[in-house]
Write a structure and sequence with these properties.
This protein is mainly alpha-helical and 318 residues long. The chain is 78% helix and 0% strand. The protein has 14 helices and no strands. Helix 2 crosses helix 4, helix 2 crosses helix 13 and helix 4 crosses helix 8. The radius of gyration is 25 Å and the shape is elongated.
Protein backbone atom coordinates (compact mmCIF):
# COMPACT_ATOMS: atom_id res chain seq x y z
CA UNK A 1 0.00 0.00 0.00
CA UNK A 2 2.86 2.35 0.81
CA UNK A 3 4.49 1.55 -2.51
CA UNK A 4 1.25 2.45 -4.32
CA UNK A 5 1.05 5.77 -2.45
CA UNK A 6 4.68 6.54 -3.30
CA UNK A 7 3.99 5.85 -6.97
CA UNK A 8 1.09 8.29 -7.04
CA UNK A 9 2.81 11.03 -5.00
CA UNK A 10 5.06 12.40 -7.80
CA UNK A 11 2.10 12.41 -10.16
CA UNK A 12 -0.05 14.27 -7.62
CA UNK A 13 2.71 16.80 -7.01
CA UNK A 14 3.07 17.34 -10.75
CA UNK A 15 -0.71 17.85 -11.02
CA UNK A 16 -0.65 20.48 -8.24
CA UNK A 17 2.25 22.32 -9.86
CA UNK A 18 0.44 22.25 -13.19
CA UNK A 19 -2.71 23.66 -11.62
CA UNK A 20 -0.73 26.42 -9.92
CA UNK A 21 0.92 27.31 -13.24
CA UNK A 22 -2.44 27.44 -15.01
CA UNK A 23 -3.83 29.64 -12.22
CA UNK A 24 -0.91 32.06 -12.60
CA UNK A 25 -1.36 32.19 -16.39
CA UNK A 26 -5.07 32.89 -15.95
CA UNK A 27 -4.29 35.65 -13.46
CA UNK A 28 -1.78 37.22 -15.86
CA UNK A 29 -4.30 37.10 -18.69
CA UNK A 30 -6.88 38.83 -16.50
CA UNK A 31 -4.40 41.52 -15.48
CA UNK A 32 -3.38 42.05 -19.11
CA UNK A 33 -7.04 42.55 -20.07
CA UNK A 34 -7.37 45.13 -17.30
CA UNK A 35 -4.14 46.81 -18.43
CA UNK A 36 -5.39 47.03 -22.02
CA UNK A 37 -8.35 49.02 -20.75
CA UNK A 38 -5.92 51.73 -19.62
CA UNK A 39 -5.41 53.93 -22.73
CA UNK A 40 -2.55 55.93 -21.24
CA UNK A 41 -0.78 52.72 -20.22
CA UNK A 42 -1.04 51.37 -23.78
CA UNK A 43 0.38 54.64 -25.10
CA UNK A 44 3.30 54.18 -22.72
CA UNK A 45 3.84 50.61 -23.96
CA UNK A 46 3.82 51.82 -27.57
CA UNK A 47 6.41 54.50 -26.80
CA UNK A 48 8.62 51.97 -24.98
CA UNK A 49 8.45 49.65 -28.01
CA UNK A 50 9.48 52.53 -30.30
CA UNK A 51 12.44 53.40 -28.07
CA UNK A 52 13.28 49.71 -27.82
CA UNK A 53 13.47 49.50 -31.62
CA UNK A 54 15.86 52.45 -31.63
CA UNK A 55 18.46 50.42 -29.73
CA UNK A 56 19.24 47.87 -32.50
CA UNK A 57 18.44 50.35 -35.29
CA UNK A 58 21.68 52.31 -34.94
CA UNK A 59 24.16 49.39 -35.27
CA UNK A 60 22.06 47.86 -38.07
CA UNK A 61 22.09 51.12 -40.04
CA UNK A 62 25.83 51.50 -39.44
CA UNK A 63 26.48 48.05 -40.87
CA UNK A 64 24.14 48.28 -43.84
CA UNK A 65 23.37 51.83 -45.04
CA UNK A 66 25.37 54.47 -43.21
CA UNK A 67 29.00 55.34 -43.92
CA UNK A 68 30.87 55.10 -40.60
CA UNK A 69 33.08 58.09 -41.45
CA UNK A 70 29.99 60.27 -41.80
CA UNK A 71 27.50 58.78 -39.31
CA UNK A 72 29.62 57.52 -36.43
CA UNK A 73 28.06 59.08 -33.27
CA UNK A 74 31.48 59.87 -31.78
CA UNK A 75 33.89 60.71 -34.58
CA UNK A 76 31.67 61.00 -37.65
CA UNK A 77 32.06 64.12 -39.79
CA UNK A 78 30.41 65.19 -43.03
CA UNK A 79 33.12 67.04 -44.92
CA UNK A 80 30.78 67.75 -47.84
CA UNK A 81 28.37 69.79 -45.73
CA UNK A 82 29.64 73.01 -44.25
CA UNK A 83 29.30 74.80 -41.94
CA UNK A 84 28.33 72.82 -38.86
CA UNK A 85 25.96 72.63 -37.08
CA UNK A 86 23.63 72.16 -40.03
CA UNK A 87 19.84 72.05 -40.31
CA UNK A 88 17.91 68.83 -41.03
CA UNK A 89 18.21 67.54 -44.59
CA UNK A 90 17.66 64.36 -46.60
CA UNK A 91 21.23 63.27 -45.76
CA UNK A 92 21.06 64.15 -42.08
CA UNK A 93 17.45 63.83 -40.94
CA UNK A 94 18.03 65.87 -37.78
CA UNK A 95 21.04 67.83 -39.00
CA UNK A 96 24.53 67.82 -37.50
CA UNK A 97 25.99 69.22 -34.32
CA UNK A 98 28.83 71.72 -33.93
CA UNK A 99 31.40 68.96 -34.50
CA UNK A 100 29.79 67.73 -37.72
CA UNK A 101 28.30 64.56 -36.21
CA UNK A 102 24.89 63.24 -37.29
CA UNK A 103 22.30 64.00 -34.60
CA UNK A 104 19.92 61.22 -35.61
CA UNK A 105 22.72 58.65 -35.24
CA UNK A 106 23.55 60.08 -31.81
CA UNK A 107 19.89 59.99 -30.81
CA UNK A 108 19.58 56.31 -31.71
CA UNK A 109 22.87 55.48 -30.01
CA UNK A 110 21.88 57.31 -26.82
CA UNK A 111 18.73 55.20 -26.40
CA UNK A 112 20.77 52.16 -25.35
CA UNK A 113 22.36 54.07 -22.47
CA UNK A 114 18.94 55.24 -21.27
CA UNK A 115 17.71 51.65 -21.19
CA UNK A 116 20.92 50.52 -19.49
CA UNK A 117 20.70 53.12 -16.75
CA UNK A 118 16.95 52.79 -16.24
CA UNK A 119 16.63 49.01 -16.25
CA UNK A 120 19.87 48.50 -14.34
CA UNK A 121 18.79 50.89 -11.58
CA UNK A 122 15.31 49.30 -11.48
CA UNK A 123 16.68 45.77 -11.03
CA UNK A 124 19.01 46.88 -8.24
CA UNK A 125 16.37 48.98 -6.49
CA UNK A 126 13.56 46.42 -6.46
CA UNK A 127 15.92 43.62 -5.42
CA UNK A 128 17.08 45.62 -2.40
CA UNK A 129 13.67 47.04 -1.47
CA UNK A 130 11.85 43.71 -1.85
CA UNK A 131 14.32 41.80 0.31
CA UNK A 132 14.77 44.58 2.86
CA UNK A 133 11.09 45.48 3.16
CA UNK A 134 9.98 41.87 3.01
CA UNK A 135 12.31 40.76 5.80
CA UNK A 136 11.42 43.76 7.98
CA UNK A 137 7.68 43.27 7.48
CA UNK A 138 7.62 39.51 7.97
CA UNK A 139 10.03 39.06 10.87
CA UNK A 140 9.38 42.38 12.64
CA UNK A 141 10.95 43.08 16.05
CA UNK A 142 14.56 44.16 16.25
CA UNK A 143 15.09 43.25 12.58
CA UNK A 144 12.32 45.65 11.58
CA UNK A 145 13.71 48.48 13.72
CA UNK A 146 17.24 48.06 12.37
CA UNK A 147 16.32 47.77 8.67
CA UNK A 148 13.75 50.55 8.74
CA UNK A 149 16.28 52.76 10.53
CA UNK A 150 18.55 52.31 7.52
CA UNK A 151 15.67 53.14 5.19
CA UNK A 152 14.86 56.31 7.15
CA UNK A 153 18.44 57.50 6.71
CA UNK A 154 18.45 56.88 2.94
CA UNK A 155 15.02 58.46 2.56
CA UNK A 156 16.52 61.70 3.85
CA UNK A 157 19.40 61.47 1.35
CA UNK A 158 18.14 62.52 -2.11
CA UNK A 159 19.80 60.36 -4.75
CA UNK A 160 20.10 63.21 -7.27
CA UNK A 161 22.08 65.45 -4.89
CA UNK A 162 24.31 62.58 -3.77
CA UNK A 163 25.08 61.63 -7.37
CA UNK A 164 25.90 65.24 -8.23
CA UNK A 165 28.33 65.31 -5.30
CA UNK A 166 29.87 62.03 -6.44
CA UNK A 167 30.19 63.52 -9.92
CA UNK A 168 32.31 66.34 -8.53
CA UNK A 169 34.81 63.76 -7.26
CA UNK A 170 34.82 61.17 -10.05
CA UNK A 171 33.52 60.99 -13.59
CA UNK A 172 30.67 58.48 -13.45
CA UNK A 173 29.78 56.01 -16.18
CA UNK A 174 26.30 54.61 -16.84
CA UNK A 175 26.89 51.58 -14.60
CA UNK A 176 27.92 53.68 -11.60
CA UNK A 177 24.90 55.93 -12.09
CA UNK A 178 22.55 52.92 -12.24
CA UNK A 179 24.23 51.22 -9.28
CA UNK A 180 24.25 54.29 -7.02
CA UNK A 181 20.74 55.40 -7.90
CA UNK A 182 19.41 51.86 -7.48
CA UNK A 183 21.00 51.47 -4.05
CA UNK A 184 19.78 54.82 -2.72
CA UNK A 185 16.28 54.29 -4.11
CA UNK A 186 15.99 50.68 -2.98
CA UNK A 187 17.19 51.44 0.54
CA UNK A 188 14.93 54.47 0.87
CA UNK A 189 11.20 54.98 0.49
CA UNK A 190 10.66 51.88 -1.65
CA UNK A 191 11.76 49.62 1.20
CA UNK A 192 9.34 51.36 3.59
CA UNK A 193 6.39 50.92 1.21
CA UNK A 194 7.34 47.30 0.56
CA UNK A 195 7.55 46.65 4.30
CA UNK A 196 3.98 47.89 4.75
CA UNK A 197 2.84 45.50 2.01
CA UNK A 198 4.70 42.61 3.65
CA UNK A 199 2.99 43.34 6.98
CA UNK A 200 -0.43 43.14 5.31
CA UNK A 201 0.52 39.84 3.63
CA UNK A 202 1.70 38.44 6.95
CA UNK A 203 -1.83 38.64 8.36
CA UNK A 204 -3.44 36.69 5.50
CA UNK A 205 -5.15 33.43 6.34
CA UNK A 206 -3.06 31.36 3.93
CA UNK A 207 0.11 32.44 5.73
CA UNK A 208 -1.30 31.14 9.00
CA UNK A 209 -2.37 27.93 7.27
CA UNK A 210 1.14 27.44 5.92
CA UNK A 211 2.55 28.00 9.40
CA UNK A 212 0.13 25.47 10.96
CA UNK A 213 1.01 22.96 8.22
CA UNK A 214 4.62 23.05 9.42
CA UNK A 215 6.17 25.51 7.02
CA UNK A 216 9.28 27.19 8.39
CA UNK A 217 10.08 30.88 8.06
CA UNK A 218 12.29 30.41 5.00
CA UNK A 219 9.59 28.44 3.18
CA UNK A 220 6.82 30.91 4.00
CA UNK A 221 8.97 33.93 3.13
CA UNK A 222 10.17 32.55 -0.21
CA UNK A 223 6.95 30.86 -1.32
CA UNK A 224 4.30 33.25 -0.05
CA UNK A 225 5.69 36.64 1.01
CA UNK A 226 8.07 37.34 -1.88
CA UNK A 227 5.57 36.35 -4.63
CA UNK A 228 3.01 38.62 -2.97
CA UNK A 229 5.43 41.54 -3.24
CA UNK A 230 5.91 41.18 -7.00
CA UNK A 231 3.06 43.56 -7.99
CA UNK A 232 4.37 46.46 -5.92
CA UNK A 233 7.91 45.67 -7.12
CA UNK A 234 6.79 46.05 -10.74
CA UNK A 235 5.32 49.48 -10.02
CA UNK A 236 8.51 50.50 -8.21
CA UNK A 237 10.60 49.23 -11.12
CA UNK A 238 9.00 51.38 -13.81
CA UNK A 239 9.05 54.45 -11.57
CA UNK A 240 12.73 53.85 -10.82
CA UNK A 241 13.46 53.89 -14.55
CA UNK A 242 11.99 57.38 -14.76
CA UNK A 243 14.09 58.75 -11.90
CA UNK A 244 17.28 57.05 -13.03
CA UNK A 245 17.10 58.34 -16.61
CA UNK A 246 16.28 61.87 -15.48
CA UNK A 247 19.18 61.77 -13.01
CA UNK A 248 21.63 60.45 -15.61
CA UNK A 249 20.53 63.12 -18.08
CA UNK A 250 21.06 65.81 -15.45
CA UNK A 251 24.54 64.49 -14.62
CA UNK A 252 25.46 64.31 -18.31
CA UNK A 253 24.17 67.84 -18.90
CA UNK A 254 26.46 69.14 -16.14
CA UNK A 255 29.32 67.09 -17.61
CA UNK A 256 29.54 64.88 -14.52
CA UNK A 257 29.70 61.63 -16.51
CA UNK A 258 32.41 60.05 -18.58
CA UNK A 259 32.66 60.76 -22.29
CA UNK A 260 29.91 58.49 -23.57
CA UNK A 261 26.98 59.39 -25.78
CA UNK A 262 23.66 59.99 -24.06
CA UNK A 263 20.74 62.34 -24.52
CA UNK A 264 21.94 64.51 -21.65
CA UNK A 265 25.44 64.86 -23.10
CA UNK A 266 23.90 65.75 -26.47
CA UNK A 267 22.09 68.68 -24.85
CA UNK A 268 25.31 69.73 -23.09
CA UNK A 269 27.23 69.70 -26.38
CA UNK A 270 24.39 71.45 -28.21
CA UNK A 271 24.03 74.32 -25.76
CA UNK A 272 27.69 75.22 -26.21
CA UNK A 273 27.02 76.21 -29.82
CA UNK A 274 24.51 78.85 -28.69
CA UNK A 275 27.52 81.11 -28.10
CA UNK A 276 28.22 81.26 -31.82
CA UNK A 277 24.89 80.43 -33.49
CA UNK A 278 21.30 81.51 -33.00
CA UNK A 279 18.51 79.12 -32.01
CA UNK A 280 17.33 78.78 -35.61
CA UNK A 281 20.63 77.18 -36.56
CA UNK A 282 20.99 74.95 -33.50
CA UNK A 283 17.46 73.93 -32.44
CA UNK A 284 17.97 70.41 -33.83
CA UNK A 285 20.89 69.81 -31.45
CA UNK A 286 18.72 70.57 -28.40
CA UNK A 287 15.09 69.70 -29.11
CA UNK A 288 15.42 66.02 -30.27
CA UNK A 289 17.37 64.75 -27.20
CA UNK A 290 15.26 66.85 -24.82
CA UNK A 291 12.06 65.52 -26.38
CA UNK A 292 13.42 61.97 -26.22
CA UNK A 293 14.09 62.29 -22.49
CA UNK A 294 10.59 63.64 -21.90
CA UNK A 295 8.86 60.94 -23.95
CA UNK A 296 11.01 58.10 -22.60
CA UNK A 297 10.32 59.02 -18.97
CA UNK A 298 6.67 59.75 -19.70
CA UNK A 299 6.26 56.31 -21.28
CA UNK A 300 7.48 54.48 -18.19
CA UNK A 301 5.50 56.80 -15.92
CA UNK A 302 2.28 56.07 -17.82
CA UNK A 303 2.95 52.33 -17.63
CA UNK A 304 3.63 52.63 -13.91
CA UNK A 305 0.37 54.48 -13.29
CA UNK A 306 -1.55 51.91 -15.32
CA UNK A 307 0.10 49.01 -13.45
CA UNK A 308 -0.78 50.65 -10.15
CA UNK A 309 -4.43 50.87 -11.21
CA UNK A 310 -4.45 47.24 -12.37
CA UNK A 311 -2.61 45.69 -9.43
CA UNK A 312 -4.21 47.81 -6.71
CA UNK A 313 -7.84 46.70 -6.17
CA UNK A 314 -8.65 49.85 -4.18
CA UNK A 315 -7.75 52.07 -7.13
CA UNK A 316 -9.82 49.94 -9.52
CA UNK A 317 -12.93 50.46 -7.39
CA UNK A 318 -12.73 54.23 -7.70
Amino acid sequence: MNNTANKHYPRSRWFIQRQNLLARITSLQKQWRLFRQQPLGMIGVLLIIIFGLMVPAQPILMKTIWDRRRYDPYVGFDIEMMPHPSSPSSIHLLGTDGMGRDIFSQLLYGSRNSFRVGIGAAIIAITISTLLGGIAGYFGGAMDIFLMGISDVFTLLPAVIILLLFGLIIKMNWFLVALTYGIFTGLGRQAIVTKAQAVSLKTKSYIESARIAGGNHLHIFSKHILPGLIPIALVHAVMTVVGAVLTESLLAYFSRTQDYMSWGSMIWMGQRTFRWFNFKGTWSTIVPPALSIMLFCSAFYLVGRALDDVLNPRLRKR
